[in-house]
Amino acid sequence: MSDSIRRLYEGVRAAEGQDPGVSRTARLLRAGPLKIAKKVAEEAAEVALETAVRNRDEVVRESADLLYHLVVLWFEAGVDPKEIWAEMDRRERLYGIAEKISKGPVLQPKLAPQTTARLDRARRRRVR
Predict the structure, then answer these.
(1) Angle between helices 2-15 and 56-77 (to 10 degrees)
(2) Tally of domains within the chain
(3) Tens of pLDDT along 70-126?
(4) Over 80: is that where the pLDDT of 66 sits?
(5) Considering the domain boundaries, does residue 117 fall inside one?
(6) Residue range of the domain that includes 62
(7) Would you say residue 119 lies in a domain?
(8) Verdict on whether the full-model pTM lies above 0.70
(9) Which CATH number covers residue 24?
(10) What is the pLDDT of residue 51?
(11) Chain mean pLDDT for the chain
């Protein structure tokens, strides 16, 4: 599975410079972090709702959509999938595979320079 996520992440990276008229991913990246976050939330809600009505086939399809949008969000945030897997491994060592750690105080991460630049561009577009 992590290989598929890695390939998807690399595809998102490659789409960053593509024509938004041709690439859906480039269009999503150009729309900025708020639009990407909204898509992640929408897809997560769709997965949850399809699960609630026991529509297994739609859960599979919507989950794939959710993973795609989540990977786009990771790229936008400057998060590499390896960081996610490292956190999953850390949690497994501490709590077991099926446990979730309790939320403590949230620390503000230092963003990579290219991510900061993308966020600045997105903020300027929103102000116009």
Answers:
(1) 50
(2) 1
(3) 999 999 999 999 999 999 999 898 888 776 666 666 555 565 666 666 666 665 665
(4) yes
(5) no
(6) 2-98
(7) no
(8) yes
(9) 1.10.287.1080
(10) 97
(11) 87
- Whether 7 maps to a domain, the answer reads yes
Nearest residue to 2 via CA among 102, 93, 74, 62: 74
Tokens of 18: 């593509």
Does residue 68 lie in a domain region? Answer: yes
Q: Tokens for 53?
A: 């009505």
Q: b or e along 82-115 (b: 16 or more beta carbons within 10 Å of the residue's beta carbon)?
A: eeeeeeeeeeeeeeeeeeeeeeeeeeeeeeeeeb
Residue-level length of the chain: 128
The whole-angstrom separation of Cα 127 and Cα 10 is: 31
CA distances from 111 to 32, 93, 116 (A): 15, 27, 6
Three-state SS sequence of the chain: CHHHHHHHHHHHHHHCCCCCCCCHHHHHHHHCHHHHHHHHHHHHHHHHHHHHCCCHHHHHHHHHHHHHHHHHHHHHHCCCHHHHHHHHHHHHHHHCCCCCCCCCCCCCCCCCHHHHHHHHHHHHHHHC
